[in-house]
């Protein structure tokens, strides 16, 4: 137990700054001594050489959720699919093999950089003979969705009788990537389904249009639209991010399985790669025990 002593003067209130400092020290000391953090530090120090088996994915699901059609016509599901495909800006141009190769390569490269021994395959029988701890990770599904939205913002125009501020709308394109992973630590037998989503959207630059008598004709020039390289970059960036989040998942599973009896871990730790320190935060995975 840590005790702090302070001379008490009944004629004065305690110094608030001093009390805050003492409280911060108590929190830091208690945090440094907690078993969860000790286990997290142990994982960070000892995880290099642990094995990870990746089961990749070979088919990318794609959908377009912003289509225009005649509401008076009853379309079949196949017709809806055809309309969505033809009206898409991006997904009809995406190569499954290019996207998935970038995603998987980035995932494997980043896990390797983290210090894991990474294996790729669909028949992990030999993997069972490797020493624990080790993890099986199946990329169960990746879905690329195309979404459009209307963004309302101000446009300032100069006309003959003065300067006007008007509200205008602009269609913004967005690509969302939804992922489902199945991850299990082999020596515990517990498998979890991990879900997350991320997206890229058109950039927009708010500006002024001073074209005389032209109103807001320059509105479309304020949008920096996504291109196909942005879509493929999403695959690489997402693969790297998934690897970082898998590291955090492995670490927290390691903590939970090695805590002393009677202690339940209510904290989620992540490794901050910029400061090279452990921090507490929110689990970016939506987890479900399979």
Walk me through this protein's architecture.
The protein has 290 residues and is of the alpha/beta class. The protein has 5 helices and 12 strands. It has helices at 16-33, 35-46, 77-87, 96-113, 228-258; strands at residues 51-55, 61-64, 117-120, 134-159, 162-185, 191-201, 203-204, 208-209, 223-224, 269-272, 277-280, 286-289.
What would a concise description of this structure say?
α2 packs across α5 (228-258) and α4 (96-113) packs across α5 (228-258). It contains 5 helices and 12 strands.
What attributes does this structure have?
5 helices, alpha/beta, disordered N terminus, two-stranded antiparallel ribbon, 8-stranded mixed sheet, 290 residues
Layout: helices, strands, pairs:
Elements: H1 16-33, H2 35-46, E1 51-55, E2 61-64, H3 77-87, H4 96-113, E3 117-120, E4 134-159, E5 162-185, E6 191-201, E7 203-204, E8 208-209, E9 223-224, H5 228-258, E10 269-272, E11 277-280, E12 286-289
Parallel strand pairs: 1-3, 1-4, 2-4, 4-8
Antiparallel strand pairs: 4-5, 5-6, 6-12, 7-9, 10-11
Helix pairs in contact: 2-5, 4-5
